[in-house]
Structure formats: C-alpha cells, structure tokens
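re: ur msg from earlier - yeah i can do the PXL complex, just paste it... oh wait u already did. ok heres what im feeding in:
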Amino acid sequence: MYLCIAFLIYKFMKKLKRVAAIHDISGFGKCSLTVALPIISAAGIETTVLPTAVLSTHTGGFTNFTYRDLTEDMLPVTQHWKSLDIQFDAIYTGFLGSFEQLNLVTQFFETFKTRDNIILVDPVMADNGEMYKIFSPEFAEGMKELCKKADIIVPNITEASFLLGETYKEGPYTQEYINDLLKKLSDLGPEKVVLTGVFFNNEELGAAAYDATKGDIAYAFEKRVPGYFHGTGDVFGSALLSAVLNDFSLNEATEIAVRFTTSAIRKTAEAGTDIRFGVNFEQTIPEFLKYLRLI
Ligand code: PXL
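and the outut:
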C-alpha cells in the first residue's frame, strides 16, 4: 500500500530540470543573466550560472561601462562541475565576448552534452543590420561554428544574415524569404531554428519557428509596439527554453515567448522607461506562468 502511494507520488511529481546558463552579468540594464536567471527559475527550472564577464551595464547605448573579463574562470568552473558529476537538461548560451570564450563554451558542450539534453545557442552579436560595436565581422564565423553544435538557435534576422554570409535585408519580409533563411540556418546543423524580428506587415511583429525533424514552419505574431527595446532577445530566449523544458512543442514555445516578450515590452513602453534599461518582464511573470500552465 505505502509502496503504491510512494510510486504514485513519484510518478506524478515533475522532475526538477536543470539549465546551465552561460552569459555575462550586466549589472544595470536588464539582459543576459539578470534576465535568464529569474525567468527560467520562475518557470520551475533550476538555473546554474556560468558568468562570462561582469559589466556595470550592457554595451548597447551606455558609455564608460566597466568590463571584468572572466574567461580565465570558465575552464576551472567546467572542470569543477564535471568533478561533481552535475548534469544538465539544457545548456543555454548568449553573449560571449571573444573567440576564446567560444572555444571554452565548445569545451563545455563536449563535457556536458548527452543524447537527451538540449543545447540552445543565442548567437548574440548584431541587430538592426549591424554588428554590435565590440564585435568584428570575423566573430560571426566563430559564432557560426558554435551554432553548428546547437540543437536550437534563436538568431534575429541581422544575426541570421551574418551567420549565412548574406546581405541584411530590411523588412517587411516575405514568407518565402523567411522560410529560406530558416532552412539554410538549420542546414548549418541545428534541428530547430527560431528566428526573431519577423514581420510581413508593419502592424505585427513576431518570430518564425522551424523544426527540421517535422519539416514544420510556424509563425507567431503580436501587435507591434513601436521602438527598439534592449534585452528583449534574452527575455525571448529564456522564455522559449522555459517552455520547451516544460514540454511544450517548439511552435507552442515560440508563441508563449512572443506573447510574454511583447507583453513585457508593452508595459515598458506605457511607463515611458528609457529603452536601455531593459523591459518589465518582472511584472509579466504571473502571465507567463499562466501560459506555461504552472498556475
Ligand atoms: O542582450 C544582449 C547583450 C548581452 N550582454 C551584453 C550586451 C548585450 C547587447 O548589447 O551588451 C553585455
């Protein structure tokens, strides 16, 4: 009898999954780890962090920021975690500051990748047709190598163009153009590609998802909120991964991530917050948990 009850409790209790999040910490201006850690944790997933650098602010629109590079710590952290036999259900990488960090992340993948876990790479390096100031165009080649090792990648259209060595095109886009980008990105290696910043008209903005295992392409849109907001790619990536690890399909996860990110952007725009400060994802978390059917 007791054994039976114990078995039922075990069967219906959800296993606590664990993510390794490899990004920088930008102290002010919500992005990277200050976004990934709270969002993924709120979604009921343990979030282990490997900080790649500590900055006073992110690099988008601020000047004179401090930058403490943590490259030297990355291999010892990897080795320590390996010695503890820690396992991860997903590895999530974002902003990486150098070729050396790309190599160290590759070693992290080789150390912790299993048949069952997921590698999600957000190739953070560019937006609005341009590389971020601190990166050279050659960096895109290194990021492309990292993307080849991922199961899921989440580039924006500028990053997709750099990864494919193509000229960036301004939107609105056609479905043919987006589908072609998705397939070419997947041909690099990842089975799943979610492209952000997709729009077919000026009223709506969203993402497109391609799952090569199913040959399936889906789009998710919300009403566009005018303006450019920092850190939204990290909010999107964290939400997408949270939904995938809560057993939603890629298409459902994309829809959840688009709704959550847009809602956070809308609140920020309504409050008139400086766009460099990041978006109000905090007060959007209750909504997010409803989308995830956790509450
Ligand atoms: O949100 C992407 C990001 C992450 N980390 C740092 C950044 C940026 C984008 O500018 O500067 C340090």
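cool cool. Residues 140 and 259 are 29 Å apart (CA to CA). ping me if u need the other ligands too
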